[in-house]
Write a structure and sequence with these properties.
Elements: H1 2-20, H2 22-28, H3 31-53, H4 67-83, H5 89-93, H6 97-112, H7 116-140, H8 151-174
Helix pairs in contact: 1-2, 1-3, 1-7, 4-6, 4-8, 6-7
């Protein structure tokens, strides 16, 4: 469980570093991006290995009918990630689409995973996303962007999200984590 906790903390710290310690981050200059990137990759490795090795109690039993909700929230999260890459309708209506994607993904996974390891991983990343939105909004205010939105871009974003979700589902199954509808 230690690797998993370390991974979640490292992920959170690396992402919040710029916001919490801006002077320290500024001193690193452009090299800071590489340092943060390396820390993030390392945190992902720690979370992956830590989750695979973690054992602990089952804190709640889940209802298999929630799998559909989890899949819907996960698809929505992938769509938000794809939409955040450009000007889409949802990015104008929903501030912080990437962090909202993490929140949707984490909530969905908490619905169907009742183990302590799942609470640490998905609950930890949910907490990080909530704290990040709060810190960003306090420092920068809520984002506001109004640009013209192309209907074709909306369709392309939706198709890209569905294809990406399919790829993620394939990898998920290959790693031994079933996707049930």
């Amino acid at each position: 469980m230690g690797l998993l906790i370390a991974g979640v903390l490292l992920w959170s710290g690396a992402h919040l570093f710029k916001r919490v310690l801006p002077e320290s981050r500024a001193k690193l200059g452009s090299a800071g991006r590489g340092v943060v990137a390396i820390l993030l990759v390392f945190s992902l490795v720690l979370m992956f290995l830590g989750y695979r090795q973690a054992s602990g109690p089952v804190l709640w039993v889940t209802d298999p009918s929630l799998n559909m909700i989890t899949n819907g929230l996960s698809l929505f999260a992938v769509y938000l990630m794809a939409a955040s890459m450009g000007a889409t309708w949802i990015t104008q209506k929903l501030p912080h689409p990437q962090l909202t994607a993490v929140k949707a993904w984490a909530i969905g996974h908490l619905l169907v995973n009742g183990t302590l390891a799942s609470l640490v991983l998905f609950g930890g990343l949910l907490a990080w996303a909530i704290v990040s939105v709060t810190v960003i909004n306090r420092q920068d205010g809520k984002p506001s962007s109004v640009v013209s939105v192309s209907p074709l871009k909306e369709v392309v974003t939706g198709v890209a999200a569905v294809l990406a979700f399919g790829g993620i589902a394939f990898i998920h199954i290959a790693l031994g984590y079933p996707i049930l509808v």
